[in-house]
Design goal:
binds pyridoxal-5'-phosphate; TIM Barrel; 10 helices; 8 strands; 8-stranded parallel sheet; single chain; alpha/beta
Length: about 250
């Protein structure tokens, strides 16, 4: 990796601003910190990067004490849960995350609703879509999205704030990239459509799409947040098993 964390973050911010070309506001960065230690993550705070994403509950719980202990009094990370989430793990994170981005099925939403209500909070969530129909990465199929939204929007412990998508790995050829770009455009269109028809109580304001390999395409197509790991921290310290993992 070239440069410091600071210079990489600044470069990403500049590129994102340039890529959105005035058509959309540049997306926020969610720094994906999986496999990296609290020691590596904490410097983000002094760079004004407060939003981070973790994809595994176990790993998040192990890091939390050090993240809290190392942060100054008035500065706290806002932690997004971005990975596939097992229903039985919801209880461990219900008080620690600012958003669960990977809600892709009713059983998971029901458990979040139940735990959030018991904790006296309303949990912001994104519904996860699988743009290319890759169920192994999590995410609901396009046709499942509206029925899921209708059910979830009625849950008092949940506030739907938008959509999250994990794109497929595309071939670097022009054809592959055009296909990927089409998926980003389709996802943005679907987001806008749902925003128009959204049931009461749903605030369609977040479109979380784009990772280290495709954040510029995501910015061009109206992502409001990109989730960036390796372009910020370098390669992961160890391979992962699940989710977007295999990218
Ligand atoms: C790991 C991960 C990312 C970030 O991946 P990079 O390619 O390292 O930027 C984004 N989203 C999800 C859901 C992930 O699991």
């Amino acid at each position: 990796m070239d440069g410091t964390l600071k210079s990489r973050l600044e470069e990403l911010r500049q590129k994102l601003a340039a890529a959105s070309e005035g058509r959309y506001a540049p997306p926020r960065i969610i720094a994906v910190t999986k496999t990296h230690t609290a020691e590596e993550i904490l410097p983000l705070l002094s760079l004004g990067q407060f939003e981070i994403g973790e994809n595994r509950v176990q790993e998040l719980m192990e890091k939390l004490p050090a993240l809290h202990a190392g942060a100054p009094e008035n500065e706290k990370f806002q932690i997004h849960l971005i990975g596939q989430l097992q229903t039985n793990k919801v209880k461990y994170i219900i008080n620690d995350v600012c958003c669960i981005q990977s809600v892709d099925r009713l059983s998971l939403a029901r458990e979040i609703d139940r735990r959030a209500q018991a904790a006296g909070r309303v949990m912001p969530v994104l519904l996860q879509l699988s743009p290319a129909g890759e169920p192994q990465k999590g995410g609901a199929a396009k046709e499942e999205l509206l029925p899921l939204l209708r059910e979830v929007s009625r849950m008092p412990g949940i506030c739907v704030r938008g959509l999250m998508a994990v794109m497929p790995i595309a071939d670097p050829s022009p054809e592959g990239q055009a296909w990927l770009e089409g998926l980003f455009a389709e996802t943005r269109a679907l987001f806008e459509h749902i925003r128009e028809i959204a049931p009461e109580g749903v605030r369609m304001e977040e479109l979380s799409m784009g990772m280290s390999g495709d954040y510029l395409l995501a910015a061009r197509h109206g992502a409001t947040a990109v989730r960036i790991g390796s372009a910020l921290f370098g390669p992961r310290h160890y391979p992962e098993k699940d989710g977007a993992a295999n990218r």
